[in-house]
Amino acid sequence: MRHYNFCYxxxxxxxxxxxxxxxxxxxxxxxxxxxxxxxxxxxTKMMHKRTLTSLFALLFATLIALPTANAxxxxxxxxxxxxxxxxxxxxxxxxxxxxxxxxxxAAGFPGSPLMIGLDGGxxxxxxxxxxxxxxxxxxxVTVDVVTDNSLASGHIFLRLKPxxxxxxxxxxxxxxxxxxxxxxxxxxxxxxxNEITRSTNFDDTAMSYGFGGGVQINLFTPTGDDGPGGxxxxxxxxxxMGSEASYLQEGSIRRQNGQVTFDVDQSRTDMLLIKxxxxxxx
Length: 282
What we know:
Layout: E1 2-13, E2 16-21, H1 30-39, H2 43-69, E3 74-86, H3 88-93, E4 98-108, E5 114-133, E6 142-160, E7 167-188, E8 195-220, E9 231-242, E10 245-247, E11 253-256, E12 259-267, E13 271-281
Antiparallel strand pairs: 1-2, 1-12, 3-4, 3-13, 4-5, 5-6, 6-7, 7-8, 8-9, 9-13, 10-12, 11-12
C-alpha cells in the first residue's frame, strides 16, 4: 500500500475556479486537470476498462434479447440495499464503510440450475459538506460545497441456483471492475437540489473478481400464466477481491492558503458486500 499527495494552486479562470499543478506551468481550467489524471493511467488499466465495457455491452444485449427470442427463458432481477466493508489492506487504508444499492439481472434456461447475469452497484464511502463564499469578490453570498467519495461497480456473474420450492439458495462467481471517483459540486445554499456546477477531483479503476451467495425467499407466486412474475426477498453477500487502485477518502482534500492538496491512498481493493432487497421473476 502507498500514500502520496498532489498539490495544486486554486485560481479564477474565466469566472470559474480552475486548478493547475504547482509548477511553472500555464494556468488551465479544471477540465484539463481531470483529463490529465485520466490519461496518466497505466495502459493496462485503460485496456482492461475498454475490454470490460465491450463485454458488458455484449452481455447486456444478449440478456435483453433472450426473453424475447425464447418464451421458455427464465429471467429474474433484484434491487438490494448494500453495505460495503473494506477488507485486508483496503481496510487498513480506508476507515469507513460504503452504503448504496445494487441492481442485477439474470437469465437461464428451464431445467438448468445455471444462470448468467449482470450486477451493477453504486455506493458512497465518504461525504463532506461545507459553506463557502461564492467568490472572492462576492463574499456576502455563500454556497454549499459538497464532496462525495464514491464507488461504482459492474460485474458479470455465473449463478448456480437449484429449483427448490419456497427458499432458493444460490451461489455466484463474479468478474468485473470497481470505479473509484471523488467529485465536488457547488449547490445553492437555500435549495440543495439546485446544483450550480461539479468537478471530478480524482478517479481510478480496479479489476474486481470474487464469489457470493445467498437465499431467495418467496413472497408472492402468481396464480396464472398472465401478469407479473413472482416476488422474492433477496438476502446475500459477496466477497470481491480487487486489484490495486488509487483513491481519495473523506478528509483527503486539504485546502490551505489558496492551495489544494490531495492525499491519495493506494492499495488493493478487497471488499465484503452485504445485500438485502427484493426481486421479481419474469
